[in-house]
């Protein structure tokens, strides 16, 4: 479903409607766009994010909920990693909930899915042992209200884990690199020898609409201390915030933008292998070297965990 400029403008003043519009539009191609899979590559990524912020104690959590599930990337891969047993998903986008349930069936299990506003989670008090989310808090208008809802549906002693949240300064750098990459690629591919690398103008226009709408649904960035404060004020204990991806983000965002700016099929398996392994090496360098000397707020991704008293 294409989204017009008029629809983007209409959604600009209604962030919840914008989220529904954008994520319904993106649902069917979201996994491909973000190189999401449900094999060992992404199982490892999800497991490592969880372990980094919350460790392995309590595995498997008997009953878990993903908030803002998208296509199910985080929860389904955590289930495959042995982190949790019974799985439930929610998202404000009906399209995303359907794709997440379909992805689960493709992996051989069922998940319950509900269309839901994160500020009013449609489950009773104390129903879950674990609530997770990936790149979701920055889409929610009232983050503190959503965190209170998360704590409400957790049993006493239950844990939440949110990963993939953009930091304030990391996001500034990533967006500037992405904008420059888009400008450079779309202009260089106008040149005669490189025209085969230029996507059709209609596709470029649609991607521009997507970028404009994505900017509408991205409501927040977080300083690590601010994210910790939001969780504490919501009522959580044992709150911890960590950050990751410095060089990995500086490499990854231009690469992803470049991939979106050229025709599908131009880059191939060798490019995908290069991009993935380079990102892995830079992530390891960020963790082993730069995390010791660079302020946490300069890294791109924030992870937060906390426990219900």
Keywords summarizing the entry:
309 residues, 17% strand, 50% helix, alpha/beta, seven-stranded mixed beta sheet
Order of strands, widest sheet: 3-2-1-4-5-7-6
Helix content: 40-55%
Could you tell me the strand content as a percent range? 15-25%
> Low-confidence stretches at least 5 residues in length (pLDDT < 50)?
none
Spatial gap, N to C terminus: 44 Å
Please describe the biggest sheet, giving its number of strands, its sense, and whether it closes into a barrel: 7 strands, mixed
Please tally the β strands and state the result.
7
Question: What is the C-alpha radius of gyration, as a whole number of Å?
Answer: 19 Å
Q: Write the element-wise H/E pattern from the N-terminal end onward.
A: HHHHEHEHEEHEHHHEHHE
The dominant shape is globular
Structural class: alpha/beta
Average pLDDT taken over every residue: 94
Please give the count of helices.
Answer: 12
Q: Mind explaining what this structure looks like?
A:
It is globular and about 65 Å long. The chain has helices spanning 5-11, 15-26, 30-33, 40-54, 73-80, 94-106, 143-153, 168-188, 201-217, 224-234, 247-261, 268-288; strands spanning 61-66, 84-91, 112-115, 128-134, 154-166, 237-244, 301-307. The chain has a 7-stranded mixed sheet with strand order 3-2-1-4-5-7-6, sandwiched between helices. It is of the alpha/beta class. The mean pLDDT is 94. It has 12 helices and 7 strands. 39% of the residues are buried. The longest helix has 21 residues, at 168-188. Helix 5 (73-80) links the parallel strand 1 and strand 2 (84-91).
